[in-house]
Design goal:
Elements (H helix, E strand, L loop, with lengths): L2 E7 L8 E7 L8 H14 L22 E2 L2 E2 L21 E5 L8 E3 L2 E2 L2 H10 L19 H11 L6 H5 L6 H12 L8 H15 L9 H5 L7 H15 L6
Parallel strand pairs: 1-5
Antiparallel strand pairs: 1-2, 3-4, 3-5, 6-7
Helix pairs in contact: 2-6, 3-5, 5-6, 5-8, 6-8
Length: 251
């Protein structure tokens, strides 16, 4: 296939970016989208131009690094798929493809298509974990958990923190991401001790990072590549309200 690519180019966070047109030829329909970008970069390097910067790692739909906005959709036109799992057979010969980074104040552009998603890391550091003292701690396998609870916790834990929910939301809200992390631990017995402080701290950090408010449009869940449910946002709201009712933190 021969394609026209409209790619966002931006030298650094402070530079003004713009869309630049490129032509790629003889693209195999069996290539992944990132392999197609590799071909583009090889062509640019042969010409002595700077390659297009984009984030990637595992290329197996696990790490959540491949955060690209493709033709106006997070991760591209195929539902339930990360960019690295998107294949060029989803496009046709002669197509024009617009490729942009995530658009959110909390995700500043590092360069070109690469964005800084460390805001997610700081939210996790604020409370998305279970603290335990070493010593006589029972193994997790020895704690009985009903299957329906374990399944719900596992479904929430499948979040790969790619940021598609933020990119798809008109408010750039991180509620789906934060709610998945809160739900995962709130549902399990290991997460009960820090249950209240966890949700307070994570929501406070989310607001501090500059993510927008949730207005329950549902675009986050629609574009999530691993199918995180909106039910988790309802769980987060209940957890937060319950925590605030008995909290000494009035902030």
């Amino acid at each position: 296939m021969n394609l026209t690519l409209k790619v966002w180019r931006q030298k650094n966070r402070n530079a003004q970016g713009s869309i630049v047109d490129y032509q790629v030829r003889d693209i195999s329909p069996e290539m992944s989208f990132l392999e197609m970008l590799d071909v583009l970069n090889e062509d640019l390097l042969r010409k002595g131009d700077d390659p297009v910067a984009f984030d990637h790692d595992c290329r197996e739909g696990i790490c959540g690094s491949c955060n690209l906005f493709i033709n106006g959709r997070a991760h591209g036109p195929e539902s339930g798929t990360t960019t690295c799992q998107l294949h060029m057979r989803k496009f046709s010969d002669g197509d024009t493809i617009t490729i942009e980074p995530w658009r959110a104040a909390a995700f500043p552009v590092n360069r070109d298509l690469s964005v800084d998603r460390s805001a997610f890391d700081r939210i996790i550091q604020a409370g998305g974990y279970v603290s335990v003292n070493t010593g006589g701690v029972p193994d997790a396998n020895e704690i009985p958990i009903p299957k329906n609870i374990a399944d719900r916790a596992f479904d929430a834990a499948t979040c790969i923190a790619c940021g598609a929910c933020v990119a798809a939301c008109k408010n750039a809200s991180a509620m789906l991401f934060v709610s998945a992390k809160v739900s995962q631990l709130a549902l399990l017995p290991q997460g009960q001790v820090e249950r209240k402080t966890r949700v307070e701290n994570m929501v406070a950090q989310m607001d501090k990072e500059g993510f927008g408010a949730c207005t329950n449009i549902g675009s986050c869940a629609a574009e999530c590549p691993v199918g995180i449910s909106l039910e988790n946002i309802a769980i987060l709201n209940r957890e937060f309200l319950s925590a605030k009712v008995t909290s000494n933190n009035l902030a």
